[in-house]
User: Which sequence fits this backbone?
């Protein structure tokens, strides 16, 4: 596992802040769950559904599929720059 990738992935997901918290650290648990899901390297569709489920479970609301898709595009770019 690449430590640089994990740090940058955390930052990316924290900046995303799909629940629009004033204090983005309120979603830390969900960020770590999303990181774990991303590391499982499931299909894009399964990953999108998984991320939506994480937020739906915690907050009774989930980010839109298009929003999750955009953040996963950024994760892919990050993956390429961190040379996993």
Assistant:
């Amino acid at each position: 596992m690449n430590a640089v990738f994990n740090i940058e992935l955390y930052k990316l997901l924290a900046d995303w802040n799909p629940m629009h918290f004033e204090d983005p650290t309120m979603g830390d648990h969900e960020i770590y769950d999303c990181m774990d899901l991303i590391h499982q390297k499931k299909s894009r569709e399964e990953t999108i559904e998984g991320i939506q489920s994480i937020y739906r479970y915690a907050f009774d609301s989930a980010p839109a599929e298009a929003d999750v898709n955009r953040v996963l595009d950024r994760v892919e770019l990050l993956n390429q720059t961190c040379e996993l």
The chain has one domain: 3-81. The helical segments are 3-16, 28-39, 44-59, 65-81. The mean pLDDT is 93. The domain at 3-81 is CATH 1.10.340.20 (Endonuclease III; domain 1).
